[in-house]
Amino acid sequence: MSVKLGVGFAAALLCSAASAADEPKVPTFPPAWSMTVQEGDGWGSYNKDLDGQRYSPLTQINPGNASALVEVCRVQVAAGGSFHDSPLVVNGVMYVATPSDTYAIDPRDCHIKWKSTLPSVAEMYPNTKGVAYMDGRLFRGTRDGRVAALDAETGRLLWSSVVGDYKFAETVTGAPIAWAGLVLVGTSGGDAGVKSRVVALEADNGREVWSFNVIPTEKEFGADTWKDARYRGGGAMWSSLTLDVSTAELFIPVGNPSPMLSPSYRPGANLFTESLLVLDARTGALKWWYQLDPHDDKDYDFVAAPTLYPSVKSQSYVATASKDGYLRVIDRETHKLVFATPVTTIQNEHVRVTREHTQFCPGAVGGVAWNGVAFDPKRRMLVVPAIDLCMKMWSVDQEHRPGEIYYGGSVEPVGPATGWLTAIDSETGAVKWKYHARAPMNAGVTPTASGVTFTGDMAGNFLAFESDTGKVLLEKPVGGAVAGGVVTYQLEGRQYVALTSGNVSRSAWGKAGVPTIVILSLPHDATGSQPSAGTADVERGRTIFQMNCVGCHGSDGTLIAGSSLKNLTSRMTLEAAADRIRNPRPPMPKLFPAPLTEQSVLDVAAYIGTL
């Protein structure tokens, strides 16, 4: 059966917070910067820190106890659809985004602190990669071509700035990054022929400071690499960006040209598509670029944010991975390729797409997608997730209509879709170990100082590996495909792992599920710590009761004959009720210490006391 790739998406509601009469100011910068966006044990940006390494210094969860991880709690954040978000944990609060909603969640018990909805009339591109945080504000893109700022304490909308026209399918699905008073993000919608751009906005008010067109036209540098880009282009930025804050170099993954499967429509190198584009974050000036594939014809998007790291000889390297199935490391000083290592099946890479039905590996939705390379500095190792899927692909004639999908071809999947996790020597490119998953691997990869690496697969499994050997320490079903972030953080002496579960999108193989945040941790006796409980919170107890108890006890606590919870405090103290929750009598299931924490037990007991 022949299918066309994916679906298109679009954007709506043009509203801007800035007055046209106000001139944006170019911000000034301190003489030195820190790579870390948040001190301590949180997760402050899409890839943890702005260098994109995703490495965590936490050590409580280690190879000796990782198999004991248990679910602490879970919370559903949407009724269905895609869930590619990477959660943030900042100052003890988790921030999560879906295409239309933004949540603040307690990262210890999944209690929702607030939910903010940004309405959109756009129907295309229903996904988002998440939010950025800076100085008490959250920043996110919308389906209708806007960037919005929210108050991190309340979820209140502070400003909303238009960066694209939804009527032409311009959208912002990528997660912005925030730094030194700027919000930096790329626009999306390339599959509809949109000419994408990178923009910098003032964090205080959303006014545009600078922009850079990744599809050059007229007198812009690189325009001669296109036959005619007035109505075509592409170059979408679907994921996030990377920043070296010591040099203000902004590293941007630019996606495929459009129409993606009809290269004859656009002869030339098609700059800056399929390129690692490097700009000055302060001004938007072009610094340098490395084009992975001039004149791409297979939808081999360069999607994932690059990863910056130093070599053992102190060279500055940048690691990239794209849908063509290669990990590439580039020297930032010479702009030369250091090595390229395949991380999935590759076939017919030098054959061009024509009208003949030709098999290519990876196919147009294979290789490395929106979550890319992680760096383990302790082991001098790069770790890369990948999709193994071949496809037959061919060109067709297609007229470009603004605002509609413009593929210029069709595809047909060949064989099953599986996945790989590959650990690679960061100096030589040699493969250290590989893991072959029975489903694609799209999730974020997080190596830790203790020697455990976390990720997930599209079959609905959370995975923990021994970093040195690739041995699977834990494979735990979580109910839905893991297509977004897998992050780790520590609060009150306890290390947690949070992940996204549930996803239906163009990469939806395996177990779909519904968009849900799942939080794991070690049982208290395994951590050696028992967080002290605070004052009971009745409202939080009500939420936990509805999530865990209503199915058996009913909403008013009277469903089980002979075990009514009504007027329970007339029969026992709240402490006795809490102890009954900790040590239940059959057939009540044991919910403590997971998914209920000590604080959750006290909150539920307090709520039951109000029935």
Q: How does the SSE layout of this entry go?
A:
Blueprint: E1 70-76, E2 88-90, E3 93-97, E4 101-105, E5 112-117, E6 131-134, E7 137-141, E8 146-151, E9 157-162, E10 177-179, E11 182-186, E12 197-202, E13 208-213, E14 242-244, E15 249-253, E16 275-280, E17 286-291, E18 307-310, E19 316-321, E20 326-331, E21 337-342, E22 358-360, E23 374-376, E24 381-395, E25 409-425, E26 431-437, E27 446-447, E28 452-456, E29 461-466, E30 472-477, E31 486-491, E32 494-501, E33 516-521, H1 524-527, H2 538-548, H3 550-553, H4 574-582, H5 598-608
Antiparallel strand pairs: 1-33, 2-3, 3-4, 4-5, 6-7, 7-8, 8-9, 10-11, 11-12, 12-13, 14-15, 15-16, 16-17, 18-19, 19-20, 20-21, 22-24, 23-24, 24-25, 25-26, 27-28, 28-29, 29-30, 31-32, 32-33
Strand content: 25-35%
Biggest beta sheet summary:
5 strands, antiparallel
Uncertain stretches of 5 or more adjacent residues: 1-40
Structure summary, number of beta strands: 33
CATH architecture of the largest domain: 8 Propeller
Output the CATH class name of the largest domain: Mainly Beta
Q: Please tally the helical runs, counting DSSP H or I stretches of 4 or more residues.
A: 5
Radius of gyration, taken over Cα atoms and rounded to an integer in Å: 24 Å
What is the arithmetic mean of pLDDT?
88
Helix/strand-derived class? mainly beta
